[in-house]
Amino acid sequence: MNRVAGRLMRSPEGVAGFCLLVLLAAMALAAPLLFPGDPLVIVGRPLTAPFTDPALPLGTDRLGRDVAAGLMHGARTSLLVGLATALVALAAGALVGTVAGLAGGLVDEALMRVVDAFQIVPGFLLALAFVSVTGASLPVIILAIALGAWTGPARLVRAEVLSIRERDYVASARVIGMHPAEIALREVLPNALPPVLALTAVIVATAVLVEAALSFLGLGDPNVVTWGSMIAEGRNVLRTAPHLSIVPGLGLVATVLGVYLLGEGLADAMAGREARG
Amino acid sequence: MHRALTLTRRRIVSSIPVLLIVIIGTFLLLEAAPGDAVDAYLLSLGGGDAGLVAELRQSYGLDQSLVKRLILYVGALLRFDLGWSVAFDRPVLDLIAERLPNTLWLMGAATALAFSLGSLLGIVAGARPGSLTDRALSIGSLALYAVPSFWLGLVLVLVFAVALRWFPTAGIETIASGKTGLARVADIAWHLVLPVSALGFIYLALFLRMMRTGMAEAWRQDFVLFARARGLARRRIVLRHVARNALLPLVTMLGLQAAAMLGGSVVVESVFAIPGFGRLAHEAVSGRDAPLLTGIIIVSAVLVIVVNLLVDIAYAALDPRVGSGEASS
Hints:
The complex is a heterodimer of chains A (about 280) and B (about 325).
Chain A: H1 2-10, H2 12-34, H3 67-103, H4 105-120, H5 123-134, H6 138-147, H7 151-164, H8 168-175, H9 180-197, H10 200-216, H11 227-235, H12 243-270
Helix pairs in contact in A: 1-12, 2-3, 2-12, 3-4, 3-6, 3-7, 3-9, 3-10, 3-12, 5-6, 7-9, 8-9, 10-11, 10-12, 11-12
Chain B: H1 2-31, H2 37-45, H3 50-60, H4 66-78, E1 84-85, E2 90-91, H5 92-127, H6 132-145, H7 149-163, H8 181-218, H9 222-229, H10 234-271, H11 277-286, H12 290-318
Antiparallel strand pairs in B: 1-2
Helix pairs in contact in B: 1-12, 2-3, 5-6, 5-8, 5-10, 6-8, 7-8, 7-10, 8-10, 9-10, 10-11, 10-12, 11-12
């Protein structure tokens, strides 16, 4: 583990991604301390320009809400949705992949057709449909995005399980009379998971972008600030106050780029490679 | 030709159960929505008496049991009947058929842009793995891939439509311009430049990175070593030996990103007010139009299956190693 961390800190990508994410996480954690209270309430004159009012450093939007507070609280939403989606998608994928790989036969066949079905429906349309049925709240949005993200982990876990279940230590666990569920949880799953974790970065990044797109279309949770809804709100005054749309977008780019960079650095470090070059 | 036919038939047969799962799943999901089509219709009317409600429910078949309705729905699908849109008060199939061409143009052009420019830049990056150009392109493409497409669209509008006035801000063509023939095609193309860029530039990164990785691997292969030992010119090795071998996996990528791009078209069409398939999905959600949304999801699944089939056929044509004998899964 230390060796991996050491290698990570020597790769420029890894360091850059790590710094970006630490900065964003600090923003997310500091948001309720620096800007206590609801960032959705009106605090000043509408469309106050940035750097003109010391109390509102980044000015206000069309409705008079604090842009700086929105940005900080928006980081919270994006990071929360990204991480929670990855957690749900990895757990669901690991469960389905393990069951399919261990059960084999008809169960495996049926589960894999379901995976196929989820893969041919565009994930964004699926999320759109799910949110429209259940109503937009943060847990629903996380679940909706995870619906389009669990298939990758499921396929990978199944492939890993298929190769692991033939190994000697699984055979010996069976011989000593271990319960199949226990074998799955204690012998197979821990060994099948590491390659799957490499997918985490892509899932987190996609989830952040999908949540932003849903909010942009007005389908996000109306009770929390999101960067996507800030961009949509700023779009109404795109010509006169373009910064209202541009700045939250930069936040999204920084988050997703940070996740990708860290993911790439980690993958290189775990493969035991030094920084490329 | 025979091989392509067998492949096509096998793929079509294997996609039938998958499509059936999509149909049943979508139907059940949208059935779970509170209220049905009649409620939505009455809301748009501003209310109605109980007799009208019962009559409407009967005419839509909503008084039947869930299973019976599902069977009715699948039966109608087999006759290419996708049901009736509540929000538009028109057949779902007509709406989709009207909107789909715009989206196919948008996606086709964006894919062409992403594939050509992406693989070209990938060749530049992969020509000398580890060089400064390679690293700059790698980081640049990663940054591009991190950009939300709707935000890129807004930035493009700000720069090229509002500030420079090179392109129109929205729409698919100049309204009531009376243009016909080639002039109209040119008008549409001019309107599509910004949306195609917003959608295409993001996927460009995907092709660039894949090409670059493939080339970095090809450099280590024996036949490349042999070509270098023979003293062939570097340009010739890069193009004829290294890039050529790295190009094939990119074709597979074309199929894989079809679903993602279809999803991406929803936001891009909303930003640029293009009356396409993606915008229709957004309108279906806003209008609480379950039959339309169900139809859209099923058609998008069919579309993804067709694109993947075309990609498979192209792959089989390009790679003589793809056999017809053994079943590929």
